[in-house]
Amino acid sequence: MIRSLWLATLALVSALALSGCGYNDFQRLDEQTKAAWSEVLNQYQRRADLIPNIVATVKGEANFEQETLTKVVEARAKATSIQVTPETLNDPQAFEKFQKAQGELSGALSRLLVVTENYPNLKANQGFQDLRVQLEGTENRITVARNRYIKAVAEYNVLARSFPTNLTGKVFGYPPKPSFTVQNEAEISAPPAVNFDKPGAK
Question: Rounded to whole angstroms, how far apart are CA atoms 14 and 69?
Fold first, then answer.
């Protein structure tokens, strides 16, 4: 009887200690960041799934700038070849590699859309315009999902870096998580200047 009471008391004290040191908060915020990250990946995948149809449609345009198409295809292949695992969230180098690949794909797509403005047939192609609208909608969803992830990581990282909860994080393996560097990606994804003097001009 006394032993059972002692064990119950010990369990209660342990639970209170874990709660007070932020352990439960780590659990909650870690799950929150994982959910936000999952949505980011879903939207990036949605974009990747649209690209083959966009490329196939643009290929039908005579004299279209092939280098632009090639860069989109290559950037998509690179972005989708990166293996993303739950550990990616705790690996700054892997996270940066993933972000860079997605930024390069954004840049290639931006150039493609800029170049298509110089082709009246594509601008009049309803199928292409529908795909473009879907792509733009997906880019907006990516932005929303990324912002939610950035917010979730910021809240988590405050807990992971603050005293005394940072000690709990070290003991139970909850290090600060890397986040998107929007400014750097904006530089990566900025489309290069395009000369519209004639179709297909570089």
Answer: 60
